[in-house]
Design a protein that fits this description.
- There is one protein chain.
- The protein has two domains: 26 residues; 304 residues, Glutamine Phosphoribosylpyrophosphate, subunit 1, domain 1 (4-Layer Sandwich), CATH 3.60.20.
- 40% of the residues lie in helices and 20% in strands.
- The protein contains ten helices and twelve strands.
- The strands form two sheets. Strands 4-3-2-6-5-1-11-12 form an eight-stranded mixed β-sheet. A four-stranded antiparallel β-sheet has the order 7-8-9-10.
- Strand 5 and strand 6 form a beta hairpin.
- The longest helix is centred in the first third of the chain and has 23 residues.
């Protein structure tokens, strides 16, 4: 059968009507998905190694160099994950783990000792994308409490586990366990002995200024636009056995919400708990429309300072803006951004 020119024209029109719109739609959908990604290529990592302590000029040049070097290494550990397209959760956990393993900081190995000369550790982590969080408190044998906190978040129906219960759970998860003596360094033991000479029968009340450094933490924005925060600490030198600070308390020392920001705090924990500082910062942004930097300054430089509370925090918002306010002599801190910008500081 011969097909006339008219038939061919009719078939061509029919094909264009039935097929091309789908092809055009598919092209538009692909173009839209591609267009989203370049806008999210930016990433940010911010870390801290504690607020309080040394007046500028009292640390030796060698000490300052050592701290700045380790902060730089922690940034590179987390930054490598973010630059490769990894998650903010992986980045903050890895950066905090690095600082837990470094004896210079008051978290993990090198943590301060309680009234009995024992290291009791706290840690928390929060996912700004899902709102899920996990924490551990008062642990003495978990090598990396921040990883245990993440397992609590991911593998249980709970948010916080403490003491022996947290350690039993960590073992079931195959996490590395250590003897309590692992956390004690000669410098920390010496500091504890000196604190006993000052107040031999009662725990040293909250005096973060006695220490050059405190809590460690990290906050991050990944290439997918998700926020996360993690915090880990040994607490206060000479604290009462069983004392838990703000670090593992979600909303006090650790908080993350994709709508607003991710926060990790450091300082006089009792005040951060009473004022729910990390969540309050987020709430100022969400309900009052306050910019990140303004909200951070209000928390640290106004609210806490008026209460005569020492401390600081680091935070990053969903746009990649950062703030690192502190009202103490120093705060060990640093940040790294996509594009290569990186900075560490103490004062």
């Amino acid at each position: 059968m011969k097909i006339s020119t008219l038939h061919l024209i009719f078939l061509a029109v029919l094909i264009s009507v039935l097929i091309l719109p789908g092809a055009i739609f598919a092209q538009q959908e692909t173009a839209a998905s591609i267009a989203v990604n370049p806008a999210q290529q930016k990433w940010v990592l911010v870390i801290h190694g504690g607020a309080g302590g040394p007046v500028k000029g009292t640390m030796s040049a060698a000490e300052e160099k050592a701290y700045l070097s380790k902060l730089d290494e922690a940034l590179k550990v987390g930054g490598a994950i973010l630059s490769a397209g990894g998650t903010s959760m992986d980045a903050v956990e890895s950066a905090v783990r690095f600082m837990e393993d470094c004896p210079l900081f008051n978290a993990g190995k090198g943590a301060v000792l309680n009234e009995n000369g024992k290291a009791e550790l706290d840690a928390a982590i929060m996912d700004g994308r899902t709102g899920m969080a996990g924490s551990v408190a008062g642990v003495t044998t978990i090598k990396n409490p921040v990883t245990a906190a993440r397992r609590v978040m991911e593998k249980t129906n709970h948010v916080m586990l403490v003491g022996g219960g947290a350690e039993k759970f960590a073992k079931t998860q195959g996490l590395e366990m250590v003897d309590p003596s692992y956390f004690i360094t000669p410098a920390r033991l010496d500091a504890w002995k000196k604190s006993r000479e000052v107040q031999p029968k009662t725990p040293v009340k909250t005096q973060p200024s006695m220490e050059k450094h405190g809590t460690v933490g990290a906050v991050a924005l990944d290439q997918q636009g998700n926020l996360a925060a993690a915090t880990s600490t040994g607490g206060l030198m000479g604290k009462m056995a069983g004392r838990v600070g703000d670090s593992p308390i979600i909303g006090s020392g650790t908080y993350a919400n994709n709508k607003t920001c991710a926060v990790s705090a450091t300082g006089h924990g009792e005040f951060f708990m009473r004022n729910v500082v990390a969540y309050d910062l987020s709430a100022l942004m969400e309900y009052r429309g306050m910019p990140l930097e303004e909200a951070g300054k209000m928390e640290i430089m106004e609210k806490l300072k008026n209460l005569k509370a020492d401390g600081g925090l680091i935070a990053v918002d969903r746009e990649g803006n950062i703030t690192m306010p502190f009202n103490t002599n120093a705060m060990f801190r640093g940040f790294m951004r996509s594009g290569g910008e990186q900075q560490t500081a103490i004062y």
